[in-house]
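Look over this record before class:
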Amino acid sequence: MPSDRPNDPREVLTRAAPAPDRVLTYGPHADHVADLRLPAGQVSDGQRPDGQGTAPLVIVIHGGFWRAAFDRSHAGPQSQALADAGYAVATIEFRRLGGGGGVPATFDDVAAAVDRVPALAAATGRVDAGRVVLVGHSAGGHLALWAALRHRLPEPSPWRRDRDPALAGVVALAGVVDLGSARAAGLGEGAVDELVGGTRGPADLADLDPALLPASDLPVVLVHGTDDDRVPVAIARGYAQRHPGVALWELDGVEHFGPIDPLSSAWPHVLRAVEVAFGGATTIDSRADR
């Protein structure tokens, strides 16, 4: 691990990051915004989609167990580092528990953001809305994978839509990718029950829980630390076992916040996972530390 990383891994949650280049508005609510960061220089070889300098778009969905106490500001260092790597980055906000979120508002907002933000970002002239990867951390990993699977939702679901051809793949960092298992384990002090209102049983999570949906036809990479005590790696292992086409990269000795900290040993693996999600690799190991 780099020597300049603070001893407390939670420090990344309050670390200052440069202000975004623009704040996009994708809907009428105060939380219907996204921080857009553009690459400072020329898009590097292998990431340029059209040869004219537009950058592929990464939509970042932050974590915090879906609660209003955590907002997109803590994803600033992660988002800036992705922009420094040559991507356009839109870090979305959405209604959260304690601020009008839960079912259906949180899901309404994430669906709307994924649908609308690429075109808003492309209006800058520097973003390719035809190549998009979703990256989510913790609860954001759940929402990113869910958003990528909306074409797999059961027919009555209000969030179902055809797969967006612009969506290239999804990366879940320490993701809550199995709501049923997370609920049974009481993760986040009962956060799943709060999210769904406590009224839905296991059979009623079919349009909310990625683990209950058919496998994605897009590249999916789960990046998870073996020392994660907030979302145990067993959550990711269970999802990967159920969906064998998913890539699970276990990072030995990495805790919950390592995958969103550009100063951590996990960060090079995160950048590689994003590259894979964009189709930049064809062979991936099940353990990134090997």
Residues 105-122 form the longest helix (18 residues). The radius of gyration is 17 Å.
